[in-house]
Amino acid sequence: MDHLADLKKFTTKPINEAAFAGMQKAYALVMSKPDTRYVACSDPAEIERVRENFLKKKLGLKSGDLDGSIKAVCEAMKADRTKSRLTFYYLLAEHHGKLDLFVKA
C-alpha cells in the first residue's frame, strides 16, 4: 500500500513529509499486522484505544474534544472501508497541531 497516496486522498493541507516518515517508522510494526493495520470506527473499543493510547499517551493531550476529533476523522474517511491507521493517526496529529512530535531532530 502506498501510504502517502492514501494520505493525499484525505488531506487538503501540504503534507509534512518528515512527520509522516517519522510516523511510518514509529508504526511500522503496527502496520505490518493485518489486525492492527486499520481503524474500525464502528468499534467503541477501537475508538477508546485511539483516544487513550494515541491522543492521550502519544500526543499528550489531556482535554479538548478528543472524541469529536476522532469522529471528524472517521467522517472524513467514511468512504474508505479500510481506514489506514497511519493516515488516521496523521490526520489526528495534524488536527491537534502535534505533527512535530514525529519529526526526528
The global form is globular
- Give the averaged pLDDT, no decimals: 94
Low-confidence residue ranges: none
Please bin the fraction of helical residues: 55-70%
Radius of gyration: 13 Å
Give the ordered list of helices and strands: HHHEHHEH
* Total beta strand runs: 2
Strand content: under 5%
Structural class assignment:
mainly alpha
Side by side, the strands of the main sheet go 1-2
Number of helices: 6
Biggest sheet architecture: 2 strands, antiparallel
Termini distance? Answer: 27 Å
List keywords for this structure.
105 residues, mainly alpha, two-stranded antiparallel ribbon, 6 helices
Topology (elements, then pairings):
Blueprint: H1 3-8, H2 17-26, H3 28-32, E1 38-39, H4 44-58, H5 66-76, E2 83-84, H6 85-95
Antiparallel strand pairs: 1-2
Helix pairs in contact: 5-6
Describe this structure in words.
It is a single chain. The chain contains 6 helices and 2 strands, in the order αααβααβα. The chain has 105 residues and is mainly alpha-helical. It is globular. The model has no long low-confidence stretch (mean pLDDT 94).
What is the structure about, briefly put?
This protein is mainly alpha-helical and 105 residues long.
